[in-house]
Amino acid sequence: MAANTSPWLHRYAVLTAAATFCLLIAGALVTSHDAGLAVPDWPLSYGQLMPPMVGNIFWEHGHRMVATFVGLLTIGLAVWLARREPRRWVRRLGWAALGAVVLQGVLGGLTVLFLLPRPVSIAHASIAQLFFCFTVTLALVTGSGWLEERPRRAQSSSPSLRRLAALATAAVYVQLILGAAFRHQATGIIPHLLGAAVVTLMVFWAWRRVRREHADEPALRRPTNFAVGLLLVQLLLGGGAYWARVATASAPQPQLVMVALTVAHVAVGALVLASCLALTLQAYRRLAPAEPQPSLVSEEATS
């Protein structure tokens, strides 16, 4: 093994990633219930640490409570990594995760103090997904499977799976930003639909490459299969969430079907991102850089 990471550190990192996923769900519940201004002050709630948990205050202050818990977990993870993790880049990633959760908290406060400005609200949602990526990465790279040293496989296809997986991950992240922009009414549905088409193409392209060249490698096969399965569910949820939003547009308050489908859509989108990220990380860990194909000129010169 290249490093000796405590199994308890890995379990703690997994807990932090799972808690971050729950925080994403809590944030989606606030947005879907139109509860962003249910508590008009920050960092306190109506001047209290624990206001009456009634109406939309339950969703908004509950979100703050989950965020505080995740922040404390992230502080613990960063300190634990700084003290026990031998790999410098992993220690730095722990501090980056801590910086991201602090920034996320500040952006959350600004959304309240400045009455939900769209750019800040979209940035708040975008940094949340980036922070989730940090915690997922830390959960993966502290595991025993990652630490196991094995020869890297060669790859010659173009583009390489490493690049293809990275592009798929980037496409999913951009799509989540477009989804946040649509939810906060900064853009229409068309950019989000175009993004969905790009994501579908990239994910299935990566899936086909893995099936064709690396089907015997579980570290690559599993995240790719998860990404495809989750993407199919995500497309169905996206259609259902949009239908529910249109069908209940005249309702005096958010309806349960719209809230449930929208929150599920956000949650599964985060899982698609995590699956593509895991594929990217494993591809860079398990595969060697693609060997350049000799050009016709070089072939003629050597003949």
Describe this structure in words.
- The structure is a single chain.
- The chain has two domains: 149 residues; 139 residues.
- It is globular and about 60 Å long.
- It is an all-alpha fold.
Relevant terms:
single chain, 2 domains, mainly alpha
Give a short overview.
This protein has 303 residues and is an all-alpha fold. It is built from ten helices and no strands. The chain has helices at residues 7-32, 57-84, 88-113, 118-141, 144-147, 161-183, 190-213, 218-247, 256-286, 296-302.
Topology readout:
Elements: H1 7-32, H2 57-84, H3 88-113, H4 118-141, H5 144-147, H6 161-183, H7 190-213, H8 218-247, H9 256-286, H10 296-302
Helix pairs in contact: 1-2, 1-4, 1-9, 2-3, 3-4, 4-6, 4-9, 6-7, 6-9, 7-8, 8-9
Q: How many beta-strand segments?
A: 0
- Calculate the terminal CA-CA distance, rounded to whole Å: 44 Å
Count of domains: 2
What portion of residues belong to β-strands?
A: under 5%
Structural shape: globular
Order of helices and strands: HHHHHHHHHH
- Which regions have little confidence, pLDDT < 50, spanning 5+ residues? 296-301
Fraction of helical residues: over 70%
Q: Rg from C-alpha positions? A: 21 Å
Count the DSSP helices.
10
Mean pLDDT: 92
Report the major sheet. none
Going by helix content, strand content and strand pairing, the class is mainly alpha
